[in-house]
Amino acid sequence: MAPLPIITDTYRVALNYTNTVNGLIAANVMHFKKSGGTSADLATKLNSHATNTMFELLPTTCSVTSIVITPLDGSSASYPYTPATPANWTGHGGAGDFSPQVAAIVKLLTGKRGRSYRGRVYLPWIAEAQSGGGGLNGTSKNTTTSAWTAFLAAMLGDGWQMVVASYKLETSEAVLTTTCEGFTATQRRRNARNSTV
User: Fold this and answer.
1) Does the predicted TM-score (pTM) go above 0.85?
2) Helix 138-157 crosses helix 39-49 at what angle (to 10 degrees)?
3) Largest alpha-carbon pair distance within the chain?
């Protein structure tokens, strides 16, 4: 893995998921920025503002079981963290079967165009009751969008701006909008992952 870039006041947040049905794991990476922030404070705010409706499309067997926060300052150690309120980080889409290689996409849009200025969160293992014909349940998709929008605003209210970090350009750009797409995405690597980020 290439060394991480140095991006002022920016923190890399890896969400590590586990599915209790078969031990599958998955990960998402997001970034947040705050002048004078700390990893411990970011962990506290993430736990305060995450809600299980952010994971509306995921089965109840899926949850974020660990978080690793890494300051992109070139020297500070990573800060591993176990969510203090597990229910807020657990799938909310029902207890039925799920599709292991299928994900929902939450788009992260900034005020600039181009690949370096947009991001995605891939929510893993969509509950089968939440999709059909390649599309997502419309009500649950809208609930997911609303939940991520509220999360973005709540984090910003505590001084933590979600950003899209470009490792190529070594820059970060504020996320202005989060939207859950209506169609599923295929993530074949999620079918048999066995290590965390």
Assistant:
1) yes
2) 140
3) 47
